[in-house]
Amino acid sequence: MNRLISDSVPRRRSLTQISDLSDKEVLELVERAETYRQMEEDTRRFSDVLKDFVVATLFFEGSTRTRLSFTLAAERLGARVIDLGVSMSSVSKGESLKDTCDTVSALGADAVVVRHPNEGAPLQIASWTNLAVVNAGDGCHEHPTQALGDLFSLSSAFGGVKNLSAKRVAIVGDILHSRVARSLCSLLGRFGVSVVLVGPPDMMVDRPSALGAEFSYDLDEVVGEVDVLYLLRIQRERIRGGYNSSIESYTKRFQLDQKRYQKMPSTSIVMHPGPVNRGVELAVKVAEERSLIAEQVRNGVLMRMAVFSKILDTAWIGGQPQKGAFHG
Amino acid sequence: MNRLISDSVPRRRSLTQISDLSDKEVLELVERAETYRQMEEDTRRFSDVLKDFVVATLFFEGSTRTRLSFTLAAERLGARVIDLGVSMSSVSKGESLKDTCDTVSALGADAVVVRHPNEGAPLQIASWTNLAVVNAGDGCHEHPTQALGDLFSLSSAFGGVKNLSAKRVAIVGDILHSRVARSLCSLLGRFGVSVVLVGPPDMMVDRPSALGAEFSYDLDEVVGEVDVLYLLRIQRERIRGGYNSSIESYTKRFQLDQKRYQKMPSTSIVMHPGPVNRGVELAVKVAEERSLIAEQVRNGVLMRMAVFSKILDTAWIGGQPQKGAFHG
Amino acid sequence: MNRLISDSVPRRRSLTQISDLSDKEVLELVERAETYRQMEEDTRRFSDVLKDFVVATLFFEGSTRTRLSFTLAAERLGARVIDLGVSMSSVSKGESLKDTCDTVSALGADAVVVRHPNEGAPLQIASWTNLAVVNAGDGCHEHPTQALGDLFSLSSAFGGVKNLSAKRVAIVGDILHSRVARSLCSLLGRFGVSVVLVGPPDMMVDRPSALGAEFSYDLDEVVGEVDVLYLLRIQRERIRGGYNSSIESYTKRFQLDQKRYQKMPSTSIVMHPGPVNRGVELAVKVAEERSLIAEQVRNGVLMRMAVFSKILDTAWIGGQPQKGAFHG
User: Fold this and answer.
1) Contact at CB, C46 and B52, closer than 8 angstroms
2) Hey, is C78 helix, strand or coil?
3) Which residues pair with C138 in a beta bridge?
4) C275 cis-preceded (ω within 30 degrees of 0)
5) Which strand (E) or helix (H) includes residue B238?
6) Could you say which residues of chain A have pLDDT below 70?
7) Which of B59, C28, C202, C282 could form a disulfide with C243 if both were Cys (CB 3.0 to 4.6 A apart)?
8) Structural domains in chain B, sorted by start
9) What's the predicted TM-score (pTM) here?
10) Interface predicted TM-score (ipTM)
11) C195: closest CA among C183, C186, C185?
């Protein structure tokens, strides 16, 4: 199902996975996010390019921070945001979900931000409706705006996307269940980043090479040679009964503690998609100096502004913003 | 308790039941909703005639889609909307409900949209406060904005309210518990529509004629001669233990399935207040071509804009909009 | 930890307790709230001095009405408000709470309104972040904006703060657990008001004099000589097992019923922070004529507007509004 649209037709498009975007479009999004950062720092003014647009959030899994990031991004561009909440999200059958989306569209929404436990649900919804659909995480599949925001953070930290070539990023944790890891691998590989996946065997994907990545079961082996250590959130309930029969054994082998932190190169940085589970994947009060974690949150909003702008603003749809159409 | 106000005094008025409105006012509302549709199609712009107004939603029964319809309608006119949510709705005693309404008014609200399981609750609230009260469904009594929106949909489908005269509308389902059916009967009868209520005996009102309607226990007898088939939502929990001891028996007799659909006149249409319970009152994938269901949702927002405009906009209060006061 | 800032540096400041404010600043806030009232009555227009600001509400204890009061106050000044809701409030450890606040700040919030069961939590948060923190009630400690709004109500009722000197205010109820009582004592004492705390021994603070107040266990002894009777909300669950083994015995001794109401001076007034527990601290239908309760709600919004304006509006930070900077 090809979500790309012809250059000449100003139709809505969706963002359900990283492969929906060309390299050129990714670079445009990073550039646009950077423009928003400048606007914010210079004038503190929000834009209203999406005035009279309505964005709906439809989260079948709770995540206040991700939902708020999308909400604030859309509102900063002047859009109204409605949260469909639990009751409209509580539909279970495919047909009902389609009816729900038809209703959301008929209520006047232009875009819907979807988080769903099932892989492919946002793509399915995009095939049913005229709404622009943004995937806010679908099962163990993808979380594209997180990866895009992180690319933006990396670009800012290293002086541009072009400087990311040959940088080494270790992603640490439950790789098997991580949609963030999947989207990151898909995105970073395109720009020459070398990714190594780190975690215990029962949390590792079967074929890391299919994600274009190396892998390791030993964080200590990797930690001294990274430019970026990207920690994933470890969910206590998931770890029980796995290879590591206890949080303690995971923590001992994969936590970024003070000792491992000191082995990292002095120019390296620490990232995490949040919320941080202090005392598990990251020790308390470690990584304060080289952490990009708060920046990732800030940049996530700016990148989501870029994404909404790209898929909803007619000045952007179909490619580059037209002359005079940019709303700076 | 007469909610009508004198023409000369610009006081707030409420909409608690269809009989609150004169025929002339109903036609004004349809016309206003049509104007909003034109504005939307032409310019995509929202109005701000209710800028600085605050509308509160107070739902003692959950309904995200109805609440959002009111919310988007008020916001499109520039109003702020606050949802009083569960905790302020969890009052149980009459005296406390009055205190709650006094608080809502003191917080600065101008109108309150109320859904309540008890018949007459919105009217009671309207007698206590200066707030404009809009009934969003009270028990088995009325749901006036749904009926008004549906009248607007019918008017659009048949080329004007005047063309509805002598049209035949069958309302099918649990008539006994349906506030939508009551408001529709009250409204459609005024404009010459012939209404027939269809459902099993235990779901039928005692005196259909008191609602100005005919009745039938047999959908097959009716389906070939309708201009409109209006299906009601069947609640699975309600049907148990009733005349029809199972969903299966209800479905067999009253579901709009492919066979019944083909017996409908080719110019007839299908309506439903939503959300559709697919596989019960309506078979999966039936009625796609002649369905007004999505239009009803869209028109519901436009009609609620007209209602808010009528009861809150000083240019409208007391009768016709004044010259030059219209906010198009 | 001194939250006051130098006059020359336009940094954010917080309001965690009454002692954060100088007498002069309190009077400024009352004057500002009065200005907002005039603006509202004259023109019904909201201000937009806080356009592009974001205020977050973080309530670890539910209170829809207080949250809405803050929300409407911020929105009337043009700010956006995001509610962090239950899930982000469900953090339990201090470190996580700090991470939550860092996230809220990174998402773009400028201020956070905090209600927390632990005394001192808002002050702790203020020490961690750059966010302006407003205490919306912390345990049994303080609820400063309630007290400031009440001072404004009293000032309006008696013709100015200067006229409050030597007025006698009785605060009645569960003094021991009341943050409202603490903030009121701290505030009213500064302006010459004589406060007497009234309640059963097991609901009385150990040292009323430390709050600058007298005390009494007998409402009947006090009620004839007050200018203001300030009733506190009695929580049924708290009263069980205490000195008064039943609601009945509390009600008998401390409820404002018709008889006690008639013993009050004819010029005296009745106040309550809401929501009123009818039939417990206040009899049904008593005090209608001399009640300031609805006014307190209205004035609470206006005072919170003044507070937001003071701590966020650069024209106000560092002291008096600058010439020409006032946003009327």
Assistant:
1) yes
2) coil
3) C116, C142
4) yes
5) helix B236-239
6) 1-11, 86-95, 236-245, 314-328
7) C202
8) 18-143+297-312 (3.40.50.1370), 145-292 (3.40.50.1370)
9) 0.90
10) 0.86
11) C185
